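Lab notebook page, bench 4
Experiment: in silico fold of construct C2
Operator: M.H.
Input chain length: 235 residues
Purpose: comparison with the prior construct
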Amino acid sequence: MPVPTPHIEAKEGDFARTVLMPGDPLRSKYIAENFLENPVLVNNVRGVQGYTGTYKGKRISVMASGMGQPAIGIYSYELFNFYNVEQIIRVGSCGSIDKDLHVRDIILAQAACTNGNYASQYGLPGTFAPIADFELLRKAVDVCEEKGVRYKVGNIFSSDMFYDDMDSGLVWAKMGVLGVEMESAALYCNAARAGKKALCICTVSDSFLYPEENTTAEERQNSFTAMMEIALEIA
């Protein structure tokens, strides 16, 4: 497919090889304005803001994905396959279902479980396990250790429902899953299919176990800077 695509108005070469991908377009704007030098708006279709600038001399882009696997599925697919992006690092929020994780702790998603059907498109004779790129994951662990950030590496659950009538999020905890979000499984599938790299770094914004710690929408948008810095360092 030629560029621009149906969902991205950027021209060829407008995106860097590495893209940070928050869910919230306003978080994309926040990262660009507070961490990138000379950021340029390269996409604003449907208000999904994408910027390219530099961080410590390295060309970096940041663009929002929206919410859910279908949304990140579209944007990451187009970036990987039509804009020559080599790696996408999701910087999102999640709800913790692990007793050792509290609000503002970091989850490095080694793999993603899901109740979604995204991988069915590949016609595989079994169940595909969407996993992160090990090199990106290892670098993220190193940065967390250097910065003294509280983090945990493990499985995350990408749910297709935010309002779940069965309230099934906590059930995944018995299998050692750390948190619940809505995008990582599709991102990891697209990266695998395209032969590219992906990692999900999530800040715990809410806790199923400690609800008194839960954050506001404004805090989620503007104050989860640790994961942003981790993503930028490994990029």
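Observations: Strands lie at 18-21, 37-43, 50-55, 58-63, 87-96, 106-114, 151-158, 179-181, 197-207. Residues 18-234 form a domain with the Rossmann fold fold (CATH 3.40.50.1580).
Next step: discuss at group meeting.
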